[in-house]
Write a structure and sequence with these properties.
The structure is a homodimer. Chain A is an alpha+beta fold and about 375 residues long. The first copy, chain A, is built from 11 helices and 11 strands. The longest helix of chain A has 16 residues. Chains A, B: This is Iron-dependent peroxidase.
């Protein structure tokens, strides 16, 4: 992924300032609201290029934008997948660069749109391709038929919450009756906690930092995140979306120490119970003087640990929500679906966190490789 | 409403910085993510005091916080309204000052919780009181029975989207089976556009600045916003909530000039079509050389103009949403319900904006006067 321009544009900066005003509201920040933040500014430069080797909205921007809307839809019979995706790619370029009138004059800013195709469409091309398999069923699911699976994922993220629905409306209108929406979930991320150089992560509704471990370096991303092949999917990745309602009242009744035992980390700092810094891997062998594990046997940080499960790293990019009930839209990206399925299978057995969750939607998608003028979105896969 | 401390606390400032990181993500802001924004900071000072003459979350903070959740519920039979409200007030104080464990260690920051009671409860006290009347039906409504009316409004707003659902869960747990949730709507506000000194307003999903006109000065608020009496409701106000789905695709197909004719204002700047600045009142008599009104006869800025309708000013504090479909949770506060009902009646006749909306929830509440240690929430009204 290349960034079109690593310098923030003036407009992007002013947009950021506007956000400070909206969030900060304290006396020290109040004067900033005198600065105009939208009117009569020059055409915006996208913060994250919509085109390139990889799609935007996965590793970039970092940290992830504040607002998300994920729309999962099915394709109508007889629709040309190739043409639909090419048109969506065109629209994404126009929206991201602010040249689409359907943005209603809103600034796209750090808008990203990420498109994936579901197993049914992948199998049509080749059942041996990554992304061709549906997710299995797991425990603690309460999933309506329409909220399981789907042909198309449109993941829209932006710092400006207003931009997200405008972009969704524009893309859904472009697709027209070629697609039928199955479910959607909007979500937010709060303030970010720094993890390591260039990487930070938000808290979830349980108050714990979420998404600390992941393929954060380029080398890790090559190994664990991006598909290296076969050629039609190289530069893509596999997404898993799991919408989970969280039992906040029950979790809140635990003491902080009990909550920390569930996660295996300190709530305030994200540091593993075995010590170190937030970026330290949990020391799974470390014990108290009386022989108990510092990171309990059923702690989430242990049960979901990639070395314990024996899988690669997953990039998590989850968003919290409170509509229709409080929860987490878990989103992970990985180049081997077993990274997710083996982890959740192991969590199913005894993860202390799982009983506080109920999954109400579940889907996996092949995130298409990046696109550009020569290679329309999806054109490498659908011919 | 007094602010407990007009200086931003160190923690509040760092929280703001975190927000910049989350929103900005451009290279120039990246280094800020190295600053810790939650861990090991001193106890927070609420940005807006939960107690005082008026409830928080109406005129303060200005601008309104980025995230909102409105929960509308009914009371079970036989519940002591006085005791329930007093307990909610206690919980609000604890949550707002960050001393409630159910915040899960999240910082309340600029959290506000605003509580209102519905017409049924007001009528029980005295059918002549403000807030005793249900809203009438209007056109362009598609409202399920459970989304019309309600006994209790809990409006939760915060800059940190994570805080909102945690607070909702804590308050709903405190209320327990004494209340039964009817509907909820979360919403967001994007960047704010400055209107006049100390006042700014966000855009709605149509791309137009929303909430420009209102009782912004203390004198206007005394006249149009706060109830002066009778004594049990003095310092309160009347809220109207209308959840509207917006037809974005159809509106987006209009040219910018056509969109501006619908609102009667410039989309980019918020300036009335009759000229001036965003803070200028529309000149409803101004005409083009060929005799057409600059602000068209059916423009929203004309149809909803308080002088045209013959009512007072309403304070609008609306939030946008995209779940379950894109829309606006219209929220207004006024001390005479006719300010709202007469305006909407007049809009019903011919407002150009109305055909792009469908209202899916509607309710009005008496917002209780502010409270303090000597006067628990609701204690002046319910004995």
């Amino acid at each position: 992924m290349r960034q079109a321009d690593s310098r923030p544009s003036r407009r992007a900066f002013l947009g950021t300032t506007g956000a400070v005003t909206a969030v900060g509201l304290s006396a020290g920040c109040q004067s900033r609201s005198d600065r105009p933040d939208r009117s009569e500014a020059p055409a915006p430069t996208p913060s994250v290029s919509p085109t390139g080797r990889y799609q935007a909205g996965i590793t970039l921007p970092q940290p992830a934008q504040r607002s998300l809307l994920a729309v999962v839809a099915d394709l109508a019979d007889g629709v040309s997948v190739r043409r639909l995706l090419a048109e969506l790619g065109e629209a994404i370029r126009a929206l991201t660069t602010g040249t689409d009138a359907r943005l209603m004059g809103l600034e796209p800013g750090d808008l990203t749109v990420t498109v994936g195709v579901g197993p049914r469409l992948v199998r049509r091309v080749d059942p041996a391709l990554p992304g061709a398999k549906e997710l299995p069923r797991f425990s603690r699911e309460r999933i309506a038929p329409r909220a399981r699976g789907g042909d198309l994922l449109i993941q829209i993220c932006a710092g400006d919450a207003l931009v997200v629905p405008a972009v969704a409306a524009a893309l859904l209108e472009r697709a027209g009756d070629r697609i039928r929406e199955r479910w959607r979930q909007s979500g937010s991320r709060g303030a970010n906690v720094p993890v390591e150089r260039g990487v930070s992560a938000p808290r979830n509704l349980f108050g714990f930092v979420d998404g600390i471990v992941g393929p954060h370096t380029k080398a890790e991303q090559q190994r664990h995140l991006w598909l290296a092949g076969p050629a039609p999917v190289a530069g893509g990745t596999l997404a898993v979306l799991r919408r989970m309602e969280l039992d906040l009242p029950r979790f809140a009744r635990l003491s902080v120490a009990e909550q920390e035992a569930v996660f295996g980390r300190r709530r305030a700092t994200g540091v593993p119970l075995s010590g170190g810094t937030i970026a330290s891997g949990p020391d799974l062998g470390a014990k108290t003087p009386d022989g108990r594990y510092l990171v309990p046997a059923d702690a989430h940080a242990r049960r979901a640990h990639s070395a314990v499960v024996g899988v690669g790293l997953m990039l998590r990019r989850s968003y919290s929500f409170d509509q229709p009930a409080p929860g987490l839209l878990f989103i992970s990206f990985q180049n081997d679906i077993r990274t997710f399925t083996n982890t959740l299978t192991r969590m199913d057995a005894s993860d202390a966190l799982l009983p506080y969750t109920t999954t109400t939607a579940s889907a996996t998608f092949l995130i298409l490789p990046g696109f550009d003028a020569q290679h329309p979105l999806g054109s490498r896969l659908f011919r």
